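INTERNAL AUDIT FORM
Audit reference: QA-55
Scope: verify that the stored structure record matches its stored sequence.
Auditor: D.O.
Record contents follow.
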Amino acid sequence: MDLSSLNPVAIAIALIVAATPLLFAALGELIVEKAGVLNLGVEGMMIVGAIAGFAGANVTGSTTFGVLCALLAGAALAGVFAFMTQVLMSNQVATGLALTLFGLGLASMLGQPYSGIPAPEFPRLWLPVLSDLPILGRLFFSHDWLVYVSLLLAGGTAWALARTRAGLVLRAVGENHDAAHAIGYRVVAIRTAAILFGGACAGVGGAYLSLVASPLWVEGMTAGRGWIALAIVVFASWKPWRAVLGAYIFGGVTIAQLNLQALGVAIESQYLSMTPYLVTIVVLVIISSDKRRARMNAPACLGRPFFAAG
């Protein structure tokens, strides 16, 4: 096994690319769960965002328009979930699973005309002098703009949850929706807004896959990343900056198994491809073993339906 063929800078850049869609989806789901809603449809919203972003970018030639299409498509699918769970009071777990199946099927149907077509080139940030630095320039100042948006979103989410009235209200709804309703907050409207935000983030994460990570449309290209994003939220204990760490750790596992395959490690490639999902399961088992810690960090009303009195 020749390790000299590995390029640390290229590996770091690939890690960032692998982590960014996970970070978008995880941050969106974190806000949804902070509002007390459990949406297991992240995978479905990501894949619909992937095809919407790819189609929008190919039709118009604008990757920015493609990202906007993905954002709206993810929010639209999340709107269906919000209507089903917050208005019709359907079971959140069953509805989320149905949303994933529906999204996968819808994306497969809509994506048929786009198979084998490359995506338009996604623009990258270029800063005079800084982007030309030998190593630091490539690591920090030469990524696509969505990488920086994802990190700004993490910082903005952390600040909003901790420092703003809106964040406090959102957390209050997730902790005790009956008390929040009793003092006059519109629980259903707040939860619906959180769900739409989560869907928009998942859609952007999907667009990142089809426009940047693998700039083409492939059926099922999310490949379970929505489920990994759900695991990252739990791993992060519902804290945005920990979600950043979790996304980069899980992204690193993905890149590690790809590099091990490229090095010709004497392990079947199928086993190496399983690595990110095995790590996800192990992490969830370890976290779930400490029930007291899980109860302390999880929103108290997570997954519980809200019935307005009167």
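Auditor finding: record pair retrieved intact. The mean pLDDT is 89.
Action required: none
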